[in-house]
Amino acid sequence: MKNKYTLECCVDSLVSAHAALRGGADRLELCANLIIGGTTPTMALYQKMREQTDTDIRVLIRPRFGDFLYSEEEACIMCREIEAFRKAGADGIVIGSLRADGSLHIEQMKRFMEQAGDMHVTLHRAFDMCRDSLEALRQAGELGIHTILTSGRATSCTKGISLFKELLPLSGNQITILAGGGVDADAVKTLLSQTALTDFHMSGKKRISSGMQYRNPSVSMGLPGMDEYTLWQTDEESIRSVRTLLDEAAAENL
Known about the structure:
This protein is of the alpha/beta class and 254 residues long. The chain is 39% helix and 18% strand. The chain has helices spanning 14-23, 43-52, 72-88, 106-116, 133-143, 161-171, 185-194, 236-253; strands at 6-11, 27-30, 56-60, 92-95, 120-123, 147-150, 176-179, 199-202, 205-209, 230-234. The strands form 2 sheets. An 8-stranded parallel beta barrel has the order 1-2-3-4-5-6-7-8, surrounded by 5 helices. Helix 1 packs parallel to helix 8 (236-253) and helix 3 (72-88) packs parallel to helix 4. The longest helix is centred in the last third of the chain and has 18 residues, at 236-253. The protein is globular and about 55 Å long. The N and C termini lie close together (10 Å).
């Protein structure tokens, strides 16, 4: 059993990236628009982040908000994005594509894998939307995917414990099961006590009030119910609290 636990932090800004690293994140998943589940980040953001850290950066490839049923045009865009980030030196990509029947879209996934080359590949929470998790796990292995990010097909990771217990022995040494969805210090305590999970994914978001002094009350540029004067950023202390728990667990396993 490995004695080091891995903490990945999902970020969509330089401010959040630095907060995550100060808090003790081992690596970063870079995206844009985290508030709507994340979309593909700009190349400029990736390049700036790479200039400022040599930490492992894995890039989310998701062309839009919504489901994971992608048209041929969207799949082509995703392939170009993967190629661009590979050439730019990204350490990995985070992808997922489904058919209308809820199965993995194997043909599109193969194309994404080909573009990824030797980059690390994570199947994101499209896995949680699959009709059959065990079939998806088997197919992920056949595709050569390295990591599956999942909440255990539940609304939060602590509610997916039964599936984690089923997936871990089946994934073996081939695929890493990365727990996500509501990961915080309390969730990690529960997962460490009830599962053999060693890899965790979190954003640690907190609300920050915009610095705008003038605010036009008659106009909203955001989605209904979303306030553009409230920003979401990674909270360093939230990351540190999880890092501390994982380090303590690692020390106990030595």
